[in-house]
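Schema walk-through. Below, the input block comes first and the output block second. Nothing else is stored per chain. Lengths vary across the set, and this one has 79 residues.
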Amino acid sequence: MTKFVVDAALGSKLTGVGEPVELCDASGRTLGYFHPLVPSPDSTIAAVRSPLSDEEIERRRQDREGRPLRDILADLERQ
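--- output ---
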């Protein structure tokens, strides 16, 4: 991998970011992307949020259809 050393001004800007950044030249052309080593807690939480609403999660939690785990494990042991 090629390494570029950034000047102090850009380095201080990049130090404060907690999510991926698109780097562009003066004309707006994309040069590449910067991904910080440590994402911010907010971006991490957003990345793992369920697409299901709280109501849908609760509905599925209440749904008791299916087979008992002990039956599933017994079937797997027989294989």
